[in-house]
Amino acid sequence: MAKKAGPAKAGSMRTAPKSDIEIARAARMKPIAEIARKLGIPDKYLIQYGPTKAKVSFDFIETLAKKKDGKLILVTAITPTPAGEGKTTTTVGLGDGLNRIGKRTAICLREPSLGPCFGVKGGAAGGGYAQVVPMEDINLHFTGDFHAITSANNLLAALLDNHIYWGNELGIDPRRVAWRRVMDMNDRALRQIVSSLGGVANGFPREDGFDITVASEIMAIFCLATNLKDLEARLGRIVVGYTRDRKPILAKDLKGAGPMSVLLRDALAPNLVQTLENNPAFIHGGPFANIAHGCNSVLATRTALKLADYVVTEAGFGADLGAEKFFDIKCRMAGLKPSAAVIVATVRALKMHGGVAKGDLGIPNVEAVRAGCANLARHVANVKGFGVAAVVAINRFNADTDAEIQVVQETARKLGAEAILCTHWADGSKGTEALARHVVKLVEKGNSKFKVLYPDSMPLWDKVKTIATKIYGAADIQGDAKVRQQFKDLQDGGYGNLPICMAKTQYSFSTDPNMKGAPSGHIVSVREVRLSAGAGFVVVITGEIMTMPGLPKVPAANSIFLNERGQIEGLF
Fold first, then answer.
1. Catalytic: 289?
2. Looking at 425, 509, 537, 572, which residue is catalytic?
3. Model confidence pLDDT, tens digit, residues 280-308
4. Domains identified in the chain, total number
5. Is residue 571 part of a domain?
6. Which of 116, 438, 446, 555 minimizes the number of CB atoms within 10 Å of its CB?
7. Dihedral angle computed from the Cα positions of residues 434, 440, 443 and 446, in that order, rounded to the nearest 10 degrees
């Protein structure tokens, strides 16, 4: 069976004989206890969910505090296109490649969301011969973390509405409720709703709405918390609404932090699985990068850094979103210092950025690649602007010509970086051995001097402008009077030191998804500002970005089914 095409499954020098799910199903997985022993985790500290997946207990994690950290490698990418880039696949392939050359390496990934799995993007377990397994479990319910996060979020919503119903002692203004319900599925019909209809017994009718679970502040808190105590403290700081005189009401005012922590206790322990080549992989947490901060949990990353010499992690979508937030939010808060960054690109995607239609990508076009390399160049420059050494990974396809590849390599060299061919989708770790050796070379040189983009003390409005002008190539930002007042209220309310989490289309440096390449001089329009006080950042929503996505005209769900043996088919 030919591999099912999809934007998250890019790259191959040869055609794989099987689909992703067939390859995953044929994997020779080892008992998860054996994988854990590679990292020095004793069996007694594993909370097993069957033979091939487990959580690592907090008791063990606490013993690691004084151990030296390994080297942190970020995998990011050019601006995504329907042609595909293969960032997760490259993360898995590089982790396997580093293990192949003798470096004790662990991978840290986000958990997939059900919305994209049944929508258009597909899962997030890699592809071809660079996957994490068990693939079906990881892409679906896994260890139940997302269900726990959904339940915690909606418990708080229920407590809020219940408090208003039973007399509203805190004086919450129903017009200023700021907490929305969530579900882990794309469902546009729930973006804007009216709740509490049906009479007095059902509460006070008000306008409401749902976000997707991965956009919930609970998800962000989950991924930034350092332990259970920190988790509960962050949950208590969530702003759920305001009184008529604009006084914020916190989750702890509703006594919500304790019961939410109970729901999240088991979920907060990092998940351990393995790659097809039986190397360790932590998969934990999963905020989207276009509407949230797009990184796996701090707890999983810190744990991996104590156990491995190299840790390979990814940040969602292109470097303008995922890498910027990884640096300015996750690294800033957790005190992480990345040693190198890998920027994934494909010739096909660069052609699209150069103006080629998707149907013509198989036709050689050196000039289109050259034009599209403007996108790659900006991402390389942006990453290096954070003081992090960078290398470009060219995820190769059958139709790529030597002349097209040479253009990419020349572009990278002009920016002081190498561009290395990778064939991990078809060849596994053998296809990333050259990339792995170059990453080690970059790390051993010690040239990375990581720095964040802006200081904590910079005003919120100026932080947004700095991101827009320095990372997106914009001329300026704009917002109407209401938006400017939101910024002022947050600044005056003591939240001015928080970092910014930009909610922006992943398909362009601008807020227009149709503007490919490296647009400059555009204006970034701020539509809404949301405070995530528990997570510790301010969400700035731009353009037409939605915090509850919709399904496409022909969703991936239409092709997912159980075969006659009860096995899952169509998942990718």
1. yes
2. 425
3. 999 999 998 888 899 999 999 999 999 99
4. 3
5. no
6. 446
7. -100
